[in-house]
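Table S5 (text form). Sequence records supplied for joint modeling of the two-component complex.
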Amino acid sequence: MERIPILEMGNCLLVTIQVDMHDRLAMTLQDDLTTRISETRARGVVIDISALEVVDSFIGRILGNIAGMARVLDAETVVVGMRPAVAITLVELGLALPGVRTALNVERGMDLIRGAIQGYEGRNGRPQR
Amino acid sequence: MATTTTSRIPEIVQRFEREILAEWTQLQGAAMGSRRDRARDDELMEQPRKFLRFFLMGMQGAGVSPDLRNPAWGEAREFLADLSRSRAMQGFTPSETASFVFSLKQPLFTRLRQELGRDPELLADEIWTATLLLDQLGLYTSEAFQKAREEVIRRQEKEMVELSTPVVELWDGILALPVIGTLDSARSQVVMENLLQKIVETKSSFAIIDITGVPTVDTLVAQHLLKTISAARLMGAECIISGIRPQIAQTIVHLGVELQGVVTKSTLADAFAIALARRSLTVTPVNHADGPPSR
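The corresponding structure-token record, covering 424 residues in total, follows.
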């Protein structure tokens, strides 16, 4: 079955969506990602959607859901590389993804997430493995 | 009322074509006055000759009926439309343009009187026929003039939409979008697309939307602004609104528009300072007298 690869980079997970998202694929990604976050105790998730040209309300909602689920599992989510047309579509659909962090590209997304993790650990800390 | 279906006008016009043309051209030159330089002299000679030919064709084809929709008047109509369009572009007033047709009356009536003076009834009929026709043609000219002007206005409107929404780069990674004029749906779409495209091109993480030049902000404009800001945020850029005037601040609050989560500053300079600070940049004065800047 078709799957979107999830890469591990340090304590972050990197998901690059290179194909057209259809609903089944999005659901599978949601399952896989939540499983991987809890397995790897990842602190951050970077979702690169720079190759995504078309979104619908379902995909928009899934992106929001993934971010919400990741937060419950103690990981920050950054969506990076959204195209202008996709951004306009999501706003017109009323899906402004209020709880999701965004960045222009993967590099800035990683910086953002490292900053967020450090800030968080500085305050609360988490026992090192 | 013209009771006859045939008229002696075409015949008379043909016979005295040269005299009528000469007088008519002279009258037009006088009517134009200061505008004379705008129309070329050869045009001034050529246009009456052409029109008189089409006028004859129209009269011979359609008779005395002053209905310009008759196909016989097709060429005359087309000629007048062209004339009006070119005069509209050259900046003539509507009356100056319409007087092209109306100034034909005087020379034409002079010839009619000269020829038909012995038969007052016929003369009155013919003058009435000519008046009706020329009035129709003159009105048509005015209408065509108006249409040409409206075309110009529409084109300028379109150009304004395209020209008036520049996105400028203030600093590496900081964009500014000075919005001038009212934001309607069509314009805000162009503004949004321009801004988002530029964010991608320059990899900017800050965009300052300056609304000093926006005369009024209503709920619709505010909604457009918020949409732009949301879209920019989705792409990973933060927006700052600047240039909110006191009246606009009052309107926004009275309308109950929620600008939550949006950073607003009163001037572009303040917004720029915030953007610089967020990027950990500072501006320091250079002191030449003391050599290197001391901090």
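Note: Helices of chain A lie at 23-40, 57-72, 84-92, 106-123.
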